[in-house]
Write a structure and sequence with these properties.
The protein has twelve helices and five strands. By secondary structure, it is an alpha/beta fold. It has a five-stranded parallel sheet.
Length: 263
């Protein structure tokens, strides 16, 4: 049997075992092993480590695609100097994901433009890099999705699908329309995840205003009770990030205009 046939057979066996990184690297790594005097165990160890790392990267890519997270709202793009001191201290721990293991929630409150969405999305990106599955969805869109599932008599199946995510980020819960059916499916979703899976929520409305979301006082109290029972609350204060960015862009534009007008 020729070397080519042997290699082709080995390739086939490795593909059958679903070891694509072995297929790509075993020949090149064999040459390196020969040059460096590696034994069989060391050679195999390097191949296995390569396969594990490649699988980890492929999993992260799959999780990233499924998450629907805003690609630009990462930790690297977040100006942490603008965050309140307490949140800056909490951020590393939240990015590690311990709260997910404990089925706890993260609730970010603040006026529009304070960076709530960027903060929770950045945490979401970091969680994915640690192997957690995350879904980012505007609250109104999730509610519409649940309403359609309820109409089609598949609400339970949709809730099971959402249960596959370690954390669901509900952005702008305060913008949910004030309809009883919408309130009911949102409450059902939150109740299903209580003490089992994590939710991360941003809201312009403080708890005392949540009767605008859930309408009924008893339902409002029950929803808040479930969310805060095991939760980290992030209060986003300070000036509007968007207003500051707009002001900076305006100043830059004025500066460019002045340079062009200069003789």
């Amino acid at each position: 049997m020729t070397t080519e046939v042997t290699d082709a057979s080995l390739d086939l066996l490795l593909r059958t075992l679903k070891l694509p990184s072995f297929v790509k690297a075993y020949e090149e790594l064999a040459i390196k092993a020969d040059k460096n005097g590696w034994g069989c165990t060391q050679y195999l160890r390097h191949l296995v480590e390569l396969e594990i790392e490649d699988r980890r990267q492929r999993r992260i890519e799959r999780l990233q695609r499924a998450s629907e997270l805003p690609a630009d709202k990462t930790l690297g793009a977040l100006d942490t100097t603008k965050l309140p001191t307490k949140i800056r201290r909490q951020l590393p721990s939240l990015c590690e994901g311990g709260f997910i293991n404990r089925a706890e929630n993260v609730l970010a409150f603040g006026l529009p433009g304070r960076g709530k969405t960027h903060l929770v999305a950045a945490i979401g990106h970091e969680l994915i890099h640690r192997g957690y599955s995350v879904l980012f969805v505007p609250a109104y869109r999730l509610v519409q999705r649940l309403l359609v599932a309820k109409r089609d008599l598949v609400l339970e199946r949709e809730l099971r699908h959402l249960d596959n995510f370690d954390a669901v980020i509900l952005d702008d819960i305060g913008y949910v329309q004030q309809d009883r059916e919408e309130m009911e499916v949102l409450f059902t979703f939150l109740a299903e995840r209580y003490e089992r899976r994590s939710v991360m929520i941003t809201s312009n409305l403080v708890f005392s205003q949540w009767d605008q979301i859930f309408k009924d006082p008893m339902t409002t109290a029950a929803a808040i009770d479930r969310l805060v029972h095991h939760a980290t609350i992030l209060e986003m204060s300070g000036s509007s990030v968007r207003a500051e960015q707009a002001k900076a862009r305006g100043a830059a534009a004025d500066s460019n205009a002045n340079r062009k007008e200069a003789p």
